Amino acid sequence: MNILIVYAHPEPRSLNGALKDLALRHLTARGQEVRVSDLYAMGWKAIADGEDFLAPDSGERLFYERASKAAFANGSQSADIATEQDKLLWADAVILQFPLWWFSMPAILKGWVDRVFALGFAYGVGEHGGERWGDRYGEGTLTGRRAMLSVTIGGRAPHYSDRGVNGALDDLLFPIHHGVLFYPGMDVLPPFVAYQADHLKDEQWPSVEDAFKARLDGLFTDEVIPFRRQNSGHYDGQQVLKPGLGDGASGTRIHLVQRGDPEQRPVPAPSRPGR
């Protein structure tokens, strides 16, 4: 199987660097093909701007998403963007390795998403009509792939519980899990998390190593987060969860399939594009 690791940390000797190196060694030893996008080492350009397009309309006002759609369609994206898109299409699984900074991913990794997930590639695909709103949230270009976050966090685990002061980790990671990975079709595994990263002692590393190896071994077999597919019949024509669904949950958890929910049945694509 092919696995892409997108790694975002400026220090190779960090815990993130150690986890990235461990994943590369362990997966390769198990016969997997692994590629690493080391964003800091690559000097990844995090800013989405007109330089991302090789043939911009001179003097025209920049509408980034429209420009990205045209550039993707006609092959005039900058080479770094096209290369990362090719890696995503090559991969059977994607691991995002990063520290939780200010409750989200580092800016360089967000910039990777902003630029690589172009209109026509990761979003804006499929036909609209009725209860169907394009191919997204469980469908799309990256369907059939798995994704997992490997995240280091400075705080303690209780801080990120339902009643913890920082909020539940599932809620903090929802924009990435649901909005970045599930949106273009990937099945998303629960995250691997290392807490108190700045205080990890040498004698604690073996337990972290063993836990991470176990998660890597289950990359293609562990159960994924049971997000509701958009075109499953669970959402109405306004893309709002239908009455009677999600009643036993709150917040972002209403978008997880629950026991007793009706089977998710695909909503067929319209015979012609909706307005």
Layout of strands and helices, then pairs:
Elements: E1 2-7, H1 15-29, E2 33-38, H2 39-42, H3 64-74, H4 79-90, E3 93-99, H5 107-116, E4 128-129, E5 132-133, E6 146-152, H6 169-182, E7 187-188, E8 192-194, H7 205-217
Parallel strand pairs: 1-2, 1-3, 3-6, 6-7, 6-8
Antiparallel strand pairs: 4-5
Q: What would the keywords be for this entry?
A:
275 residues, alpha/beta, Rossmann fold, six-stranded parallel β-sheet, two-stranded antiparallel sheet, 7 helices, 8 strands, 29% helix, globular, Flavodoxin family protein, Flavodoxin_fold, NAD(P)H_dehydrogenase_qn
Any overview of this molecule?
This protein is α/β, with parallel strands linked by helices. The chain has a single domain, classed as Rossmann fold (3-Layer(aba) Sandwich), CATH 3.40.50.360. Helices cover 29% and strands 13% of the residues. It is built from seven helices and eight strands, in the order βαβαααβαβββαββα. Strands 1, 2, 3, 6, 7 and 8 form a six-stranded parallel sheet that branches. Strands 4-5 form a two-stranded antiparallel sheet. α1 crosses α7. It is globular and about 60 Å long. GO terms for molecular function: NAD(P)H dehydrogenase (quinone) activity. Belongs to the NAD(P)H dehydrogenase (quinone) family. This is Flavodoxin family protein. InterPro entries: Flavodoxin_fold, Flavoprotein-like_sf, NAD(P)H_dehydrogenase_qn. Keywords: Oxidoreductase.
Using the CA coordinates, give the radius of gyration. Answer: 20 Å
- Give the termini distance in whole angstroms: 40 Å
> Could you please say which CATH topology applies here?
Rossmann fold
What is the CATH superfamily classification? Answer: Flavodoxin domain
Count of discrete structural domains: 1
Broad CATH class: Alpha Beta
Strand proportion, as a percent range, falls in 5-15%
Architecture, according to CATH? 3-Layer(aba) Sandwich
Give the class from helix and strand content and strand pairing: alpha/beta
> Roughly what percent helix?
25-40%
Could you name the ranges where pLDDT drops below 50 across 5 or more consecutive residues?
Answer: none
Family: Belongs to the NAD(P)H dehydrogenase (quinone) family.
Protein name: Flavodoxin family protein
Keywords: Oxidoreductase
GO molecular function: NAD(P)H dehydrogenase (quinone) activity
